[in-house]
Amino acid sequence: MFPDKLPATPIRKPNRARFSWMAVAMAALLAASLGTGTVLWAQSGSTSSSKPQTKTPDKPTQEAPAEAGGPAGDIGPIAVPKKKEEPPPEPVKRKPPEGLADYSLRVDVPLVNVDVMVVSKSGFFIPGLKQENFRVLEDGVPQKITSFNQTEAPITAVLVVEFASIHYQFVYDALNASYTFANSLKPNDWVAVVSYDMKTHMLVDFTQNKGEVYGALHSLQVPMFSETNVFDALYDTLDRVDRVEGRKYIVLIGTGVDTFSKITLDRTLKKVKETPNVGIFTISTGEALLLRADARGYLGPIQRLDFLQADNQMHAFATLTGGKWYKPRFEGELPDIFRDIANSIRNQYSIAYHPSNSKQDGTYRKIKIELVNENGGSLQINVNGKPSKVSIIAREGYTAKQQVE
Q1: Is there a contact between 340 and 117 (Cβ–Cβ < 8 Å)?
Q2: Alpha-carbon distance 323 to 320, whole Å?
């Protein structure tokens, strides 16, 4: 049991000096945590006195590094790394809208190529000539030759054969000449075969297979029409070979008579002149038959005139392009004819020049080739030790391109 009264405990007076010391300590800790940088001092006892506050020395300021560039803080400037210098971006290539092709500007410098054959009186090729031995005249104005060489290369040719039911002898001569031409081909030659009567028929496109050429000729068995539209056939063939690069040749075998063409002779001759880098060799058929018929009085004045005009047309097609026209009388002449054609095609001088008249006005310009010596006079050529006349075979001119405005 608890006593009724607890003993009286004397009440102690608080020690003001101890409270004063604890207050000072608490204030010092509070000041240190707040970072005021000052220290408070007090004396124990009933009375306390404070000394003036003493500032601590300032810390040295931190210098900004070279790469510093940001704002300053309590501990110094904030370093911001510099951005790396990057090369400028490449321009973006923009694609044209769909359906719209890219266009580029190109300036064509006119260049005229002329293949020249120099043959003796007997028809043999004259080798060994130099660039200084040739003079090129365009519309009477001398031109500067920029390229010259003697070539012997594979040929690109189109064999155009007349196959119509006019007379057996004409058909026989045409096929015989065609087979002889096929036999003269070399492995690297490119040849196409075309026949014509009322229409033009592509028998075989350009090929190096001689068997395909023979197969095309074997397909010519029975002629169906009697029309001989040589103008249409030559015009269409020229239009086709114009898209083929390089030097091309056309070997045209037929009577030369035109009966039902939609294309006129004037348009055909114009096409011959305008088509560049094409040489035409023509062979007229049926000469032996015509001579026998004329001797027996079977040819009337109109028929004789028709065949005479046909010969003139075949001759014009050849001479306008620097080719040759042949009119064999006997079958035995054909091997020599095609040997001469091959010799003319494979052995020639190639001349190129930039015309002094650079206008692209679509005009026809005449070309003349002359042989000159070192002094500019006429060149004398000896064959078998004797002076001999020579023939210069080249195209007579060309048509300049028409500038599009």
Answers
A1: no
A2: 8
Domain 153-346 fold: Rossmann fold (3.40.50)
DSSP 353-393: E--S----B--EEEEEEEEB-TTSSBPPEEETTEEE-EEEE
Cα four-point dihedral sign 138, 144, 147, 149: positive
CB 119 within 8 A of CB 365: no
Q: Is the pTM of this model over 0.85?
A: no
- pLDDT tens readout for residues 47-91: 444 444 544 555 555 555 555 555 555 555 555 555 556 666 766
**Residue 382 CB neighbour total at 10 angstroms:** 8
Is residue 306 helix, strand or coil? helix
Tokens (6 digits) for 267? 């348009």
* pLDDT at position 79: 56
Q: Write the burial class of residue 405 (CB in 10 Å: 0-12 exposed, 13-18 middle, 19+ buried).
A: exposed
- State residue 337's pLDDT score: 93
> What six digits make up the tokens of 21?
């010391």
Tell me the residue length of the chain. Answer: 405
Is residue 268 helix, strand or coil? helix
Domain boundaries, given as residue ranges, for the chain: 111-151+349-405, 153-346
Residue closest to 138 by CA, chosen among 389, 361, 395? 395
Amino acid (1-letter code) at residue 57: P
Task: Output 48 or 194, whichever has higher pLDDT.
Answer: 194
For the stretch 336-362, pLDDT in tens is 999 888 888 888 899 999 999 988 888
Looking at residue 360, what is its pLDDT? 86
Cβ 265 vs Cβ 259: under 8 Å: no
Q: Locate 265 and state its tokens.
A: 């002779």
Write out pLDDT tens, residues 98-120.
Answer: 655 555 555 566 889 998 988 88
- Compute the chain's Rg from CA coordinates: 53
* Tokens coding 312: 């003139």
Distance, CA of 208 to chain centre: 24
- CA distance linking residue 261 with residue 227, whole number of Å: 9
Q: How many CA atoms lie within 13 A of 165 on its CB side?
A: 6
Looking at the DSSP bridge assignments, the partners of residue 119 are: 125, 391
